[in-house]
Design goal:
By secondary structure, the chain is mainly alpha-helical. The protein has one domain. 39% of the residues lie in helices and 4% in strands. The chain has helices at 4-22, 25-34, 94-106; strands at 35-36, 43-44. It is globular.
Length: 107
Amino acid sequence: MLNQADVRRVLVLAACVGRDLAADPEHESELRRWVGVDRSDGIPAEALPPPPSRTPSPVRDVDVLATAGKSQRPVATFEETPLLAVLATNEDEPEDWLRVRAASRRG
């Protein structure tokens, strides 16, 4: 488990990555293709977490709903120091993902 200083560092890094991704038009376009209101596949809008009231936050605000007219979602306040764990593998292949998943369920 991460200590409070490491949790804060992870949240700040994740917020920076989120800002970088939000500035990437190709990434935003892909999100709009997979997240939506009237979809038969992908992620339905109601499955998204509420937007965080502050950053850094332990959840990412997927603000592609503004284009669908659903930008008036209520915000939520998340804990400042959530309990986080980091799972890592030496490679990034499907077998590694399964090993991490299995290990996380045992831990």
